[in-house]
Known about the structure:
251 residues; five-stranded mixed sheet; three-stranded antiparallel sheet; 8 helices; FERM/acyl-CoA-bd_prot_sf; FERM/acyl-CoA-binding protein superfamily; FERM_central; FERM_2
Amino acid sequence: MIVIVSDFQFSIVLSPKQCVKDLILHVLGKLDIKSDYYKYCCIFTADQILPLTAPLYIFDQHAVLRFKLFDIQGAIAHNDFGLNMLIYAQTKQYIRSKYISLDSDILCQVVALYLCIDFGQYTSQFQFPLGDYIPSSILSVFRQSDVQKQIVTYYKQIPQMTKELYLQNFIQLIKQLNLTFVLFKGMENNSNVIFGFNKQKLLLLKQNESTLSDLNCFKINEENAVFKIGNETIIILCENIKLVKGLSEII
């Protein structure tokens, strides 16, 4: 499972079979995104964190190995776009020690939120300005002390949670924090389960696989849409549908 989340403008969820490199290039090209609008974002995996000059967050525990986008033999990694990326070993060790007891499915989902919200107290180790890497919309959330306490308390409980309880609590937490997030649950009883969070509204789309596979573009509401690219389903969650205008050309 891969979850791609931008600076709360649009979000994409897709399966590992989709070519991430081509998708990113297509999306950035079609949307004509201005580079100065976005800050640095990070590629978070279970094994490393790489700063990337692209308006996306990519979460997947095997993304680097699966798509061979990075050479991680040295401290500096170069991806196919020619961007320089620095691997922070301390962060790698921190993630591993923090989540080693979790299964990969839950790990893939929780690392993103934890780092986005709780990253602030660890930035001194990495010697970079927090604002250059974390979107201001996220900064404003975890700078609230009460939010930090909620996050820390919540994640201490995760290892004891069942998957069902984890998901239930995860949804509740996201709604409380009023964040935008997308979770692709995947196949469950022969159905695709998609959770989309838009402001305080929780969207749940459940479709039979055969029905969903026939969709070219399925509109959830005025602010969200589901697209079909090849055999993969892509869910677009955005606050302004105009931002995804043009994605239909990719299909």
